[in-house]
Amino acid sequence: MFCDFEFFRFQEEAPVHERQRLKDNRELLLCRIDTLKCHKKKLNEEIRKTSGRLRHLECELNSIKPDFLYLYRRRERLTKMLQNKGLSSMTVQNLLQNFFNADDYFKGSALVSNGSPNFADGAATHTFSPTDSSSLIITGCSKQDCVNLLTGKSDGTFLVRSSESRSGFYALSVVCGGKIHNCLIECKDDKYGFAGTDAWFPSLYEFVSYYSSHSLKDHNSDLDIQLLYPVMPLASKLP
């Protein structure tokens, strides 16, 4: 930046027709310098605020490290407990994967509505969202896994798994009267439903949503029950 003395000296030495241009250029330079100073001030303020946020986040991370370590060890203990109860290692890992990947939950009037796993009666259950159809089915779940998951659970606890006897179809396993009942969910023309009924749905989400507020007795007279408590499904793809 030129000082006033130097500017006036250059202006005196310059030809008369150039003096106004020199003056205009000086004003333009001064304006740009002021703009740069303003930007610098704003950047310094942003840096100060960002540094403060980073220090705050670092403190928060340090404060939750003990909780994280505790939860990690607890997860390991629960994983071993489930495996000791008869669940396969793959089933347990898929359950964990779905629990940490699920974003939204189905909130039908007859389903659990708190959006979080419920272990009150020993059943790992949660709710689903309309966009969560892909996680309704438990992949890799054998009949024995199904028995292990549902034995001793409340009436209305259910899960959906791939049918072992009919390729492309699904099996609904539900607790009713203290017993585990299995129903074949057929898939015809891209719709899901029970054979012999008029209720067919374009997705498993809508199938489950319907039977969460309607009894299964239309399909089986022995099943006067609704789908109330979904066992935690796995993160997998449905057709």
Automatic annotation (TrEMBL):
Location of the SH2 domain: 138-231
Keywords associated with the record: Coiled coil, SH2 domain
Record GO terms (molecular function): 1-phosphatidylinositol-3-kinase regulator activity
Gene3D superfamilies reported for this sequence: 1.10.287.1490, SH2 domain (3.30.505.10)
Cellular component per GO, a single term: phosphatidylinositol 3-kinase complex
Cited SMART domains: SH2 (SM00252)
GO biological process: insulin receptor signaling pathway; phosphatidylinositol phosphate biosynthetic process
Signal sequence interval, chain numbering: none
Domain of life: Eukaryota
Coiled coil: 26-60
The protein's name: SH2 domain-containing protein
Organism for this UniProt entry: Soboliphyme baturini
